[in-house]
Amino acid sequence: MSTGKRNTRQRQLVIDALKDSGEFRSAQTIHMDMVANGEKVGLATVYRNLRSLAEDGSIDMLMAPDGESLYRRCDLDGHHHHLVCRNCRKSIEVTGKEMESLLDALVAKYGFSDLEHSLEIFGLCPQCQRAGAGES
Predict the structure, then answer these.
(1) Residue closest to 11 by CA, chosen among 39, 48, 38, 44
(2) Of 25, 43, 58, 83, which cross-links 29 as Cys (Cβ 3.0–4.6 Å)?
(3) Helix (H) or strand (E) holding 4
(4) Alpha carbons 90 and 101: distance in angstroms, whole number
């Protein structure tokens, strides 16, 4: 996506860091990975660039159940939702006309307009289920 924003070296480093992973990661994790790869970049710079990239739609951002912001590279253009493993943070991007139809009917019932929404569904992926993740 072209936003007219200058692609600084730091912004490109953040973009490159996101290309290497398919799961949602925190800004701290992304920063630690960048530092481990020898990059000299501050955590505040990583946060600023992640926020900017999410605002212009270049990356996905979601709020984890614990309130932490998580980021990943978008595979799909346009509106979509996510199934996210709350253990390993693997995610699957999903679109769904049925979901959108249900939401349209719901907001019409209550008279809302000019809508925006985000839907993230958290659970355990098949691999984490087999490994017994999430057991108390």
Answers:
(1) 48
(2) 25
(3) none
(4) 27
